[in-house]
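Give me the fold.
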Amino acid sequence: MSTHTELGFFATNVSFEDSAAIVTGASRGIGRAIAIELARQGTNVLINYNQNREAAEAVKREVESFDRQAVIVQADISDLNTHAKLLETAHDAFGKVNILINNAGITRIADILQETPEQFDLLQNTNLKAPHFLTQRVANYMIENEIPGCIIYTLSISDTMASDNRTAYCISKAGLEMSMRAYAGKLAMHGIKVNGVAAGVINTDLSRVRIPDYEEAANKGYIFMVRPGTPDDVAHATIAAMRLYDTGVVLPASGGVMTPLLNLRSMSELDMNKT
């Protein structure tokens, strides 16, 4: 990587013009916001979805409104046999792929003492195994074609904050962070940046039901949360992770939830300074 152009996403001024991205789980929520923000930055986008074709078509129209190209591919990424179709379709449509956003994920509620192996495997196959091996495929493609690229993982504060009723999800995200770090170390020599974004309490279909619990905890002073996040907040953090002069790191997008704090509101009535 001897010239400014060859530095790609390690350049001082990262450019997205004429880039081409695969965004998994891009028909709604965080993936949708990332796909649209990438288009705003100048990127052509492959929109992957699993079930909702109509939502994917709407994202395609928004991407095209920025004069960017967009293609849609239906694929359940937990089926590793679909990964070749994602890469081949994007390459054929755009001539190259230099961005991969590992965003697709699911969650399930299950008490850790009652969780079944089938429930556990479903989460690991979708949230961990699929992005790990999609990254392997795309990274090898970038290396073979000498493409300086960038791979971003949508992670979660749940990779460090355990939940006894969402344990399989937490384990999948913790493993995904290690996948990100391992690839970052391997791929830097090939000019490929790999970072993660740890989403917090985001107002999406996946986590909306959890917002009241976090708001209550914030009101009581157990955590700090300036407000629940939006998909756009995570999209902006994703762009920042791509511009960042670093690799193998996790950028927070949690509104302060991960800031250590114990400021119990009920203590406000106890005036220790009284004489």
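The domain at 18-205+229-255 is CATH 3.40.50.720 (Rossmann fold).
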